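Input:
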Amino acid sequence: MTSLEKRCAEAGLRMTGQRKTILQVLGDSADHPSVEDVYERAKKLDDSISIATVYRTLSLLDELDLVIRHEFQEGYSRYELNWDHHHHLIDLETGKVIEFQNSELEVLKEKIARELGYELIDHRLELYGKKLKK
Amino acid sequence: MTSLEKRCAEAGLRMTGQRKTILQVLGDSADHPSVEDVYERAKKLDDSISIATVYRTLSLLDELDLVIRHEFQEGYSRYELNWDHHHHLIDLETGKVIEFQNSELEVLKEKIARELGYELIDHRLELYGKKLKK
DNA sequence: GTAGCTGCAAACTCTTTGCAACTCT
DNA sequence: AGAGTTGCAAAGAGTTTGCAGCTAC
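Output:
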């Protein structure tokens, strides 16, 4: 049982074959797949899986905070496992998503929220850019 | 003719009654209205306006960069005039959207993009928080 | 055994679009 | 006059849901 499956079980979820498949797909994905992407990849492992189950499972995982749902101004959602905290730079020419971390930013965002009288629960920074010519 | 209307005219758009109405609604809105919100407010000024025109107009204004389209993880878009540059803190308990600016952040985000080899075109920071108890 | 889960298909929400009529320039 | 714009209704995405059957516990 993977640690992901363990966390699901602890939350009281039944570890069905479909859920294992979807968790495996997410674990094997280094990118930020859309629901459709997850569905396509899951179908390769279990041809009988339905997209409704993928939607339902991703919503569940999002509620459990095992997964992060992104809306990169594209009109649909992308998902990724909630392992390490990071942000995204979206290449406007290729659509490629680059991950980055920045400790200065982590400090700054806490400070901004506090100054506004808020406790920070979540936050997102997205940069949209074009590759610099060398 | 308002400055907004002027910028539209300069872009070669016809200043129809509907467009003037929508621009007026946007100018009068201090919040971040959804398409439906803009439509409701516009209807009070011109009962015959259609939601298709609101969608079309907001898309146009977005292309012209007169307006910013947001997706605050809600499943639909919100719009605001692109006057001054700022970011948003979304109150998770009330849904209220608070605007803020931060010059440190402006410097930092440029630096991050540059270090990743990118020219920054656009960016978004969204904080999600709960009000601190006094 | 049974509450929870699934696949299917239908429904729903948000958004876009084809078209004939209309209107700004 | 004529290209751009509009309202309407239909179509298109993406997502959710009711239901009967199935399955993990």
